[in-house]
UniProtKB/TrEMBL annotation:
GO molecular function, one term: protein histidine kinase activity
Domain Histidine kinase: 160-351
SUPFAM superfamilies: ATPase domain of HSP90 chaperone/DNA topoisomerase II/histidine kinase, CheY-like
Reactions this protein catalyses: ATP + protein L-histidine = ADP + protein N-phospho-L-histidine
Protein name as catalogued: histidine kinase
Length: 363
């Protein structure tokens, strides 16, 4: 539609009526072009610059309905007001179903021209509304496609980052393992082995993420199985042949998985060192869910409270467990009824949402 006057193409083989329509609509602010056949109307329409069409039914050559069909095949056609002297309602229904925006019955004296002006104005307004709606829908689709593309790109990047981080941490863990194996000093070997386990616990989370379909969560049962397998292959692995796991399929976010893995690493290593002074024995890790509540248990059948304190112990493991438990909002409890050592942690699958601070009135 032009900025000044809209252009109406009047397709009718009646020249006299065409002049009446042109004069009447020009007084109402339209530019009117009149052609005498459907073929001529289609040719003019292909040249562009038409805002609305008034179309007669009965014409030599292409009639109105045939012309309307071809108009609708043109990309983004202007609205059409069907104008005919016929009182046959079937023509009106057929025209409206074929895509006409409105239907008028004309008379030879041109008294229908004011009605045509109203119908043309209304058709133009409806066309503007449709265009605005189509543009908005196209923008929504384009935005959705852009978001989907960005989300896919972000997923690929996150997967690659987790892959690289996991590989880098695994290399560090392997280097610590080699260093521990070659060390002649037991306290150095133990420190390096502990460090290797902590690094491996974090590396396993990233490995789970880049091999998973979901980059936002970790299956704890699969993660813990892989983590315990790493511990079995560690420098202390010859004492972990009876390390077992019973874990329900539970999902959690990566940060909580890291905290859980580090706690399991510390408590299992503690059991390996102190539970069986004379050799090796069973160590069991259990994870079970009750709704949103999780329970993690690490237990052994060793000496329990009879274990002697190691004078060279730095307490680092205990501090790490306490820090990770605080991150999970969990308390670490020792089961006093168990003959050996049974450590129990209970926590929620996800942290509780923070409670907003109460508002204080201004002084």
């Amino acid at each position: 539609m032009t900025d000044a006057k809209p252009t109406l193409l009047y397709i009718d083989d009646d020249e006299a009526l065409g002049r009446l329509v042109s004069r009447g609509l020009q007084r109402q602010g339209f530019c009117v072009e009149h052609v005498l056949s459907g073929e001529a109307g289609l040719e003019r329409l292909r040249q562009g610059g038409i805002d609305v069409i008034a179309l007669d039914q009965y014409m030599p050559g292409l009639d109105g309905l045939e012309t309307l069909e071809q108009i609708q095949s043109i990309p983004d056609p202007p609205p059409v007001v069907f104008v005919t002297a016929s009182q046959d309602s079937k023509i009106a229904v057929t025209a409206l179903k074929a895509g006409a925006d409105d239907y008028l019955v004309k008379d030879a004296q041109g008294e229908f021209v004011p009605l045509l002006q109203v119908a043309a104005d209304q058709a133009l307004k409806q066309a503007m509304v449709r265009k605005a709606r189509d543009d908005a829908e196209a923008e929504v689709r384009a935005s959705r496609d852009r978001y989907a593309a960005l989300a896919a790109e972000r997923e690929v990047l996150l997967r690659e980052v987790n892959h690289r981080v996991g590989n880098s941490l695994q290399i560090i863990a392997s280097l610590l393992h080699l260093q521990a194996s070659s060390s002649k000093q037991e306290e150095v070997k133990a420190a390096l082995t502990n460090a290797m386990g902590r690094v491996a616990a974090v590396a396993q989370v990233h490995r789970r993420l880049y091999t998973s379909h979901d980059l936002k969560s970790v299956m704890l049962n699969q993660y813990l199985e892989a983590l315990l397998e790493d511990l079995r292959r560690s420098a202390e692995g010859n004492r972990m042949s009876r390390l077992t796991l019973s874990a329900q399929p539970v999902e959690t976010d990566p940060d909580r998985a890291v905290a859980i893995g580090i706690i399991v690493n510390e408590l299992v290593m503690n059991a390996v060192k102190y539970a069986y002074p004379e050799g090796k024995g069973p160590i069991h890790v259990e994870l079970k869910a009750d709704g949103d509540e999780l329970e993690l248990v690490i237990c052994d059948d060793g000496v329990g409270l009879n274990v002697k304190a190691n004078p060279q112990s730095t307490g680092m493991g205990q501090r790490i467990v306490s820090a990770m438990a605080a991150k999970l909002e969990a308390e670490v409890e020792r089961d006093p009824r168990h003959a050996g050592t049974r450590m129990v942690l209970r926590f929620r699958r996800a942290n509780a949402p923070a409670t907003p601070a109460p508002e204080t009135a201004a002084p």
